[in-house]
Amino acid sequence: MMAPALFQAGAVSQMDPSTGVYLIAAIVKLVVIFTICMVGVAYSTFAERRISAWIQDRHGPNRVGPQGVLQVLADGVKNIMKEETYPNFASKALFILAPGLAFLPAMVAWAVIPFGSPLPTPWGRIDLVVADLPVGFLFTLAVTSIGVYGIVIAGWSSNNKYALLGGLRSSAQMVSYEIAMGMSTVCVLLLAGNVSLGVVVDQQARMGWNVLLLSVAALIFLISAFAETNRLPFDLPEAESELIAGYHAEYSAMKFSMFPMSEYANMITSSAMIVTLFFGGWDIPFTHWDNDAPWTVLKSVLTFGAFATKVMFFVFFYMWIRWTLPRFRYDQLMALGWKVLLPVVLAYIVIVAGAVLALDAAGVARGPAFGAILFGMNVVLLAVLVFALDKGRLVSPSYARLAQDRVARLRAASAQRSIVAGGGGQ
Amino acid sequence: MNEFYPLVYTFHFYLFGLVALAAAIVFVTRKSPVAAALWLVVVMTSLAALYVMLDAEFVAVIQVLVYAGAIMVVFLFIVMLLNLGTLSELGEIRGKWGRIAAALVGLALVAELAALSRAAYSLRVTVPARSGPEAIAETGGVIGSIAAPMFRDYLLAFELTSVLLLVAIIGSVVLARKRSEHDAG
């Protein structure tokens, strides 16, 4: 009987997938990636507290250990020792299931992300990716789309109206932004011609990073990733000023702790996705030394370093945004997703597909020149998009300038209301 | 390693099949709509696992991404929004006659499926002569082997389906609009 394609996808490496060494290598990769992620999750909670303190000009946790680095351990011990509470009339099985369901998908999604150039070993070449599935990043999108169940079930099973509202908001938000996110990856597909993330990294090494070639898609993916991870300015499911703590209002101790952990795990995973799809993955910029054989251990180490640096930058970027921007109103969130991102990304797909078709027809080879032409096109498109968005009509924060006619209408409406209120005898 | 492969494969195939069947039975017997919807998610993910084992990874991923990850989330959203979780009137549609009718329809379906599996009919779709990873690679990979027929041989049908879906969307928008105008006036 033939092994299905799932198990044969690693066949690009010289190592025979049917040997025991391959299995051992896979297990080692699993353990290493899982450990790095868990430590990353723990320390990004610490980093968030220190970075928020730095941005707000305070000290942050700096007492446990040198510069507070052991704060993470103290928090872990505290959360495990705390009392577990269950709300009355909660659906207990679902209440316990929800935190795990929120956390697992973020970890599973790591399986397809390549994190370094192939590692040569005496037993053959090992690709530094846990499983190079033929469905590539579609797997990540599918698995992260399951993550919303954790939040929705947590909100519903808590038997609390604030939690339920948080769960409802989360489901609507996730479904809305998933579409824009999926559409923005279509542009990557147009250039790479394959969903395998290894191929996407390769294409970026040859043509230039996709953030330059597909700037608008990168921007939309980045915005959607913020919405998918429920991070500010999209953290309406747990908006503390409106919903106490939203979907996890009823949770305590380690079960509560699982929700922030899943949020940080999601941040790291989506940072890795942003890096791999748009920022060259493990590619070291300005050199082709790292992309070609002969593979050495040094190359693997350096490319992993490049990948980790980029991912850490985006984790920092998440925190930077959180402590800089205010939260959206719910109608602004929906308007941004459906009235701005979706039409923009659909138009962009058409434009990019047309450009790729024209360049291929003109006989431009898929290389640096191809990339340069696309980059030029993107500069123009990005300028047009930013100009259109900056008019403050569609996504207007409270301080945005309003159009004159809109101000007049708002004033008229407000005058109307005060007349009605006055007439009512207030 | 490889000598155990057929055993492992068979075991997992039947495992996921059993999980799908058991979850489906639990799904149709739940009184609470939320619980039923969640069991349906289990059915869908087990089906996705079966698709993976049948070398159809793309179908499996789309199953999870679209059905479990999007459609069921919207279902849950609506069920939770209407707060149907504790209503007992929902059980009323399952009266004596309702049960009998459901049983009859179910039996008819089983009979039809049995008849279909025995009938010697010819499929009018292109089924690849061989299966397995090599055949999939020849026809353009797990995605290409689905995309090529869809966008070449059956392009018209595909586009017509999307127009049909568009009609449904526009219809729902029109219906929603009409009611809100009525409420306002």
The total beta strand count of chain A reads 2
What's the CATH first level of one domain in chain B?
Answer: Mainly Alpha
Task: Give the overall shape of chain A, derived from the CA principal axes.
Answer: globular
CATH topology call of one domain in chain B = Four Helix Bundle (Hemerythrin (Met), subunit A)
Strand content of chain A: under 5%
**Cα end-to-end separation of chain B:** 73 Å
CATH superfamily grouping of one domain in chain B: NADH-ubiquinone/plastoquinone oxidoreductase chain 6, subunit NuoJ
| Beta-strand percentage range of chain B | under 5%
How many H/I helices of chain B? 7
SSE blueprint:
The complex is a heterodimer of chains A (426) and B (185).
Chain A (H helix, E strand, L loop, with lengths): L4 H4 L11 H36 L15 H11 L10 H17 L7 E6 L2 E5 L8 H10 L1 H10 L3 H32 L4 H11 L2 H4 L1 H14 L11 H4 L9 H26 L18 H26 L7 H32 L6 H22 L14 H20 L3
Antiparallel strand pairs in A: 1-2
Chain B lengths: L4 H25 L3 H21 L3 H25 L14 H23 L14 H6 L2 H13 L1 H30 L1
Helix pairs in contact in B: 1-2, 2-3
Features:
heterodimer; A: 426 residues; mainly alpha; 16 helices; 2 strands; disordered N terminus; B: 185 residues; Four Helix Bundle (Hemerythrin (Met), subunit A); globular
Task: Characterize the structure shown.
The complex is a heterodimer of chains A (426) and B (185). Chain A is mainly α and 426 residues long. Chain A contains 16 helices and two strands. Helices cover 65% and strands 3% of the residues of chain A. Chain A starts with a helix and ends with a helix. The termini of chain B are far apart. Chain B is mainly alpha-helical. Chain B contains seven helices and no strands. In chain B, helix 1 (5-29) runs antiparallel to helix 2 and helix 2 runs antiparallel to helix 3 (57-81). Chain B has a domain at 1-86: Four Helix Bundle (Hemerythrin (Met), subunit A) (Up-down Bundle), CATH 1.20.120.1200. At the A-B interface, helix 1, helix 5, helix 6 and helix 7 of A face helix 1, helix 2, helix 3, helix 5 and helix 6 of B.
